[in-house]
Amino acid sequence: MAEVFTKPSSQLVIQTAFLGDLILSIPLFKQIKSRYPHGQLILVCKAGLGDYFLKEKIVDQVFEIKKNDRGSYQKIIDSLNQLNVDHLFCVHRSVRSQLFSYQIKAKNKIAFKSFLGRFIFNDLIEFKTSWPEALRQLYILSSTNAKIASALNQQDWSYLNRPDASGHLPPIPATLQASDLGQVNNGSSKKIAIFPGSVWATKKWTEDGFAKTANYFSEHGYQVFLMGGPDEKDICLRIQMQSPQCQVLAGSLSIADSVHFIKTCALVVANDSAPTHMAACQDIPVVSIFGPTVLRMGFRPWSSKAIIVENNNLDCRPCGKHGHQKCPLGHHHCMKQIAASTVIDAGLQLINSNNLSH
Ligand code: SF4
Q: Which residues line ligand 1 (CB under 6 A)?
């Protein structure tokens, strides 16, 4: 009788959102790996984002999609259909991701509830709008994992999105933390990373505010690094004009290398954007400056070492899911009214409490 070889089973996650959301998938990746330790965990993500997840062994294989390139979708579909996919978890809720999932062979297909989803997936899970994003994504496992379902259904996790008056966030229960990826900084680092950029213009705090913050820390013995992607090099160079002691690293490090660099820092200062989540997933203290967005949308840094700085005196917040390229009211007070001293105080609080914990 011919010998029959069975391909090892794989678990597949489709998450083609921005980097910040992908980082908030880490608790989900971690749970899938611990529940299915023998198969591969495969990630489908946006082009350019998979490197970090692969290098850190958070997932075993990555397929990167080039949006608007049909050829790239088809190649990935063909490759995935050569594998033995046990569960397909589609955590990205776009129609495009759902139609992509339709073309992939998998024993079980799971997604969040939607009209179209009824024709594609075996199981549709409630999207818990008020919960933090990391837990909303983790909840997709509730149909396959009774333990997770019962742990998550014990309470309403929306309280995790509510900071106290000084911007400190409620701590995340130990069992739900992002990862044990390990922190390198032992509290003695004198490096600070500032990420002034964002894909959305209104989500950027003022260049003057970043420069004053950089100057304060430079004058108090810290090495300050201005960081971001290649598109953020110009803003970093402008800030450096006002804060010449800083070094500009924007555009010179990959995402994986930026995360490694962050691990050696005492503090990260960033807008409500991917670097906030990069710092949080490494448990590095982070001051995150929120403008047109608010925490109840669910995108808190998934860490207990974070302070949210925001302007709570405006009725116009939030003004959009992501912010806009221009303030609809023209004044951009959500960011312009945030003083550098508030951000500096928050940074000092985090550095001091982190030093005390070591
Ligand atoms: S409308 Fe309000 S929240 Fe939106 S960008 Fe302008 S100031 Fe900020």
A: 202, 291-292, 314, 316-317, 319, 327-329, 331-334
Atom number in ligand 1 closest to CA 292: 3
Q: Provide CATH code, domain 191-356.
A: 3.40.50.2000
Indicate the pLDDT class of residue 337, thresholds 50, 70 and 90. very high
**Which segments of the chain belong to CATH 3.40.50.2000?**
9-155, 191-356
pLDDT tens across 217-232, in order?
A: 999 999 999 999 999 9
Distance 291 CA to ligand 1 centre (A): 7
221 with 240: CB under 8 angstroms?
no
**Domain 9-155 in CATH 3.40.1160.10:** no
Rounded CA-CA distance 210/194 in Å is 8
Residue 3 has pLDDT above 50, yes or no: no
Ligand 1 pocket test, candidate residues 205, 331, 338, most atoms within 8 A of CB: 331
Question: Which helix (H) or strand (E) element contains residue 151?
Answer: helix 146-153
Indicate the average pLDDT of the chain.
91
Strands 306-310 and 286-290: parallel
Ligand 1 centroid from CA 202, angstroms = 7
- pLDDT-wise least confident of 102-111, 203-212, 319-328: 319-328
CA 318 – ligand 1 centroid, Å: 7
Distances (CA, A) of 68 to 74, 91, 245, 311: 12, 20, 42, 37
- Band the pLDDT of 71: cuts 50, 70, 90: confident
Tell me, yes or no, if the pTM score tops 0.85.
yes
